[in-house]
């Protein structure tokens, strides 16, 4: 059965890497950069899809060899799903029954958010700088649709939203998921949940040096259903009457065939 | 082996679904019910979103009731006229049910309403059936005649106006309760994803006094159309029918039903009804527990703008 294709990122900077040590000697001020680039810009979900690991390759540009030796460069790679509004509901007890009562809507919540890092997040940089970058499952800024709500309520529902997404495997952290293969080259492994959303996902790479954020780079990745699944989905949404007739006819045919195949009387 | 469901948008195990369909099919063949009242809760327990479970359940019911109705058609135990009147009511009820379904979904109370309806309907029907069948079992063991009212004996329903003659059922009864019954079941069918056989069968027997031998065939025949209509509306308004999911359940269900029907013939009527009652009560109890026990997370997420 077909499986998700690994999206290998190309190394557009390979030539540059070879020359870096020479230039490092002459220019002490390093102009670090980070590169990722996808060899495939779309991933197809087929019938057998049950989640996958996506491997992303990337490279540092012009790193300081001394800092590389000390292991003071850190990379965080994020695969962020399309943003959509989400409603969070809370159940409370009414006459002993758990009923959805309060709710809060958030605009532009990423459907999925997989992070891979070189080290645990708290070891890379300060919480304040994560907040500023809106980086990490616990730091993404969730915009409430109704900002006049009590801050405590918004905090509570934001917290709950992150918790539910994490529990569903849609928000994940893979500590140690980014590994340096050489001075410049790194590999990041991010998790795609079985119910990953289709749409335009964005791979983003963040570079830190000594706990200070330096650069960010991103690439786009289209995740879509493969031929048959996509056809069924399209048919159901664009040609509802025809699709439902098909569903009914299929049911009648199955019922009739079942009768013939299994008939004992 | 897992398969990705294009409408439910999740990955599920093929064999779990086939087995689920097979087990429910076996029971439905045995008891002569569509099995929708088992399929929908099972799908919900298996993490299929309730809205998809309901609509796909309705689609699955078509297959099992068509298969069942065919054998009754062959034996002639089917009242077309009665089924037609029930169906007329059913279409009206189903339309209303789908409207209520969409409204509840948009205000976030659909899951609760589905569970509540299941608990109430299954609890009531299961309870009544259990009492009746246990009494019948006791009576037959004691050798005394059945204390049940005989078919043909009249109750208030038979005093209503607009009478109509249903020849195959040997019945002369007002169309009002027949239409109302059809509408009520159509409504439930739309919201609960059931054919409604588990309500229709006892209602036809105990309320309208339809002879038992034509009840199941007529109910199944009528259910084909009500659930086809429900499927059609759900698929065109809520986009919640997953044809792949439905097909896997149907294949399991149709196969299971044929063996279930064989097994059912070995049991006596009262025994069958008592077993069915226990099964119905068990499902009701399981759903009730979920309503009253604190859920693992009191928070839930839903997409906005999907109706």
Automatic annotation (TrEMBL), chain A:
Residues 1-24 form the signal peptide. The chain crosses the membrane at residues 242-262. This is TIGR02186 family protein. It comes from Manganibacter manganicus. Keywords: Membrane, Signal, Transmembrane, Transmembrane helix. Pfam families: Alph_Pro_TM.
TrEMBL record, chain B:
Its main location: membrane. The keyword Cell inner membrane does not apply. The chain crosses the membrane at residues 12-45, 51-70, 82-101, 113-131, 171-194, 239-260, 272-293. The keyword Transmembrane applies. Keywords: Cell membrane, Membrane, Transmembrane, Transmembrane helix. It is found in: Cell membrane; Membrane. It holds the Pfam family TauE. InterPro entries: TM_pro_TauE-like, TSUP/Inactive_protease-like. GO terms for cellular component: plasma membrane. It is a multi-pass membrane protein. Belongs to the 4-toluene sulfonate uptake permease (TSUP) (TC 2.A.102) family. This is Probable membrane transporter protein.
């Amino acid at each position: 059965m077909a499986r998700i294709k690994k999206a290998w990122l190309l190394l557009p900077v390979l030539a540059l890497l070879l020359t870096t040590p020479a230039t490092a000697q002459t220019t002490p001020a390093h102009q670090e950069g980070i590169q990722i680039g996808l060899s495939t810009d779309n991933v197809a979900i087929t019938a057998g899809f049950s989640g996958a690991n996506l491997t992303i390759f990337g490279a540092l540009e012009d790193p300081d060899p001394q800092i590389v030796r000390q292991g003071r460069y850190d990379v965080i790679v994020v695969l962020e799903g399309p943003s959509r509004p989400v409603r969070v509901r809370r159940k409370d007890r009414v006459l002993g029954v758990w009923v959805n009562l309060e709710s809060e809507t958030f605009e532009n919540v990423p459907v999925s958010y997989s992070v891979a890092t070189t080290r645990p997040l708290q070891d890379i940089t300060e919480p304040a700088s994560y907040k500023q970058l809106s980086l990490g499952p616990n730091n993404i800024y969730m915009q409430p649709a109704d900002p006049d709500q009590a801050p405590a309520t918004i905090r509570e529902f934001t917290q709950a939203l992150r918790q539910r997404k994490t529990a569903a495997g849609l928000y994940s952290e893979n500590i140690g998921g980014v590994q340096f293969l050489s001075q410049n080259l790194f590999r990041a492994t991010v998790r795609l949940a079985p119910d990953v959303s289709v749409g335009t996902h964005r791979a983003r790479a963040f570079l830190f040096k000594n706990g200070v954020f330096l650069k960010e780079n991103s690439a786009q990745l289209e995740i879509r259903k493969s031929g048959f699944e996509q056809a069924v989905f399209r048919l159901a949404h664009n040609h509802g009457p025809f699709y439902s007739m098909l569903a009914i006819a299929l049911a009648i045919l199955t019922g009739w065939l079942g009768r013939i195949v299994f008939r004992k009387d | 082996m897992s398969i990705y469901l294009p409408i439910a948008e999740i990955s599920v195990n093929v064999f779990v679904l086939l087995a689920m369909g097979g087990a429910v099919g076996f029971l439905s063949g045995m008891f002569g019910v569509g099995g929708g009242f088992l399929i929908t809760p099972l799908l919900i327990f298996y993490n299929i979103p309730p809205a998809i479970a309901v609509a796909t359940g309705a689609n699955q019911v078509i297959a099992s009731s068509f298969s069942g109705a065919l054998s009754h058609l062959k034996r002639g135990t089917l009242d077309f006229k009665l089924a037609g009147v029930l169906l007329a009511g059913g279409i009206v009820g189903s339309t209303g049910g789908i409207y209520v379904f969409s409204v509840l979904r948009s205000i976030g109370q659909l899951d609760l309403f589905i569970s509540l309806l299941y608990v109430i309907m299954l609890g009531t029907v299961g309870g009544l059936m259990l009492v009746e069948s246990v009494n019948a079992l006791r009576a037959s063991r004691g050798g005394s005649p059945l204390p049940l009212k005989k078919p043909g004996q009249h109750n208030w329903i038979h005093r209503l106006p607009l009478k109509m003659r249903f020849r195959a059922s040997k019945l002369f009864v007002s169309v009002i309760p027949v239409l109302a019954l059809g509408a009520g079941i159509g409504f439930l069918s739309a919201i609960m994803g059931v054919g409604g056989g588990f309500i229709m069968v006892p209602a036809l027997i105990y309320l309208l006094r339809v002879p038992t031998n034509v009840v199941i065939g007529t109910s199944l025949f009528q259910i084909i159309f009500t659930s086809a209509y429900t499927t059609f509306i759900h698929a065109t308004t809520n986009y919640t029918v997953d044809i792949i999911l439905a097909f896997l359940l149907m294949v399991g269900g149709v196969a299971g039903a044929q063996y279930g029907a064989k097994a059912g013939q070995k049991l006596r009527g009262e025994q069958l009804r008592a077993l069915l009652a226990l099964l119905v009560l068990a499902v009701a109890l399981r759903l009730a527990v979920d309503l009253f026990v604190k859920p693992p997370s009191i928070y839930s997420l839903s997409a906005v703008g999907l109706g």
